[in-house]
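Design request, tokens follow.
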């Protein structure tokens, strides 16, 4: 029996959901797994709601569609919880990871559709501001996902951040992303 993890990233344009969905797939492939990472856009503008999708498996993936029954959902902007049931299609004991300074119990009390779900929270925007200098929560959220699911190894993610982004970012920003990833891994809380 093969193991398949399907992940939906809910964010807004400019928060890095597309980048992190595709990057996680790359990390998984480099770990010897099979993976897909791709975005789904609405209106293509900064701040508009968008989704990213990642599949990770130990066997070839033959499905090539959006994800309808995720094992994990990441919410990069908690204001999306006011307009979208991010748990739609989630079965069983999936993980919902939310970028918020609130504790999991507080966020569950505010949104009834989270009742009965495993909710994890981390202040990814605060971590990103402190470590990177910009409020882009994608790497901290990836660190939280690794802690919640173990879908890939934290060491693999850090190594691939260095490899993939060394020509795109300054050394300070590159190392800040790795620190943000590791800090979120340590600070994420679950219910």
């Amino acid at each position: 029996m093969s193991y398949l993890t399907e992940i939906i990233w809910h964010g807004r344009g400019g928060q890095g959901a597309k980048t992190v969905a595709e990057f996680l797939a790359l990390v998984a492939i480099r770990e010897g797994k099979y993976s897909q990472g791709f975005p789904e856009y609405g209106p293509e503008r900064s701040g508009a709601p968008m989704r990213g999708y990642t599949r990770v498996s130990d066997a070839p993936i033959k499905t090539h569609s959006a994800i309808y029954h995720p094992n994990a959902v990441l919410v990069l902007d908690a204001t999306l919880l006011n307009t979208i049931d991010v748990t739609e299609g989630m079965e069983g004991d999936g993980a919902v990871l939310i970028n918020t300074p609130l504790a999991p119990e507080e966020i569950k009390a505010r949104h009834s559709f989270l009742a009965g779900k495993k909710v994890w929270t981390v202040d990814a925007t605060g971590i990103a501001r402190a470590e990177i200098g910009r409020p882009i929560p994608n790497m901290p959220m990836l660190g939280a996902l690794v802690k919640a699911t173990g879908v890939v190894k934290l060491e693999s993610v850090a190594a691939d951040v260095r490899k993939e982004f060394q020509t795109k970012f300054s050394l300070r920003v590159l190392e800040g992303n790795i620190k943000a990833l590791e800090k979120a891994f340590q600070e994420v809380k679950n219910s």
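Comment from the thread starter after seeing the answer: thanks! The chain has a mean pLDDT of 94.
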